[in-house]
Amino acid sequence: MLGVWAFRDRAGSFTLAHLFRLAGDEAYHHSFFITFRTATVTTLVCVLLGYPLAYLMATAGPRARALLFTAVMIPFWTSVLARSLAWVILLGRRGVVNEWLVATGLVHQPLPLLFNSFGVQIGMVHVLLPFMILPIWAVLARLDPALPLAARSLGASPGRAFLYVVLPQSLPGLAAGMTLVFMLAVGFYITPALLGGPNDLTIVSLIEMVVRDLLDWSFGAVLSLTLLAFVGLIFAIGATVAGTERLTGAEART
Amino acid sequence: MKRRRPIGAEWRAGLLWTAATLVIVFLLAPIVVILIVSFNDTTLFSFPPSSWSLRWYYALWNSRSWREAALLSLWIALAVTFASLLVGVPAAYALARSTSRSKRFVEFFLVSPMVVPVVVLAIGLYVLFAPFRLVGTPVAIFLGHMLLALPVVLVIAGAAVRKVHPSVELAARSCGASFLGAFWHVVLPAIRPAILSSGAFAFLTSFDEVVLVLFLGGPRTNTLPKRIWEAVRFELDPSLTAVSTLLCVLTLLALAVAELSRRASRTQARPELTQ
Question: Using 50, 70 and 90 to split pLDDT, how confident is the model at B127?
Answer without folding.
Answer: confident
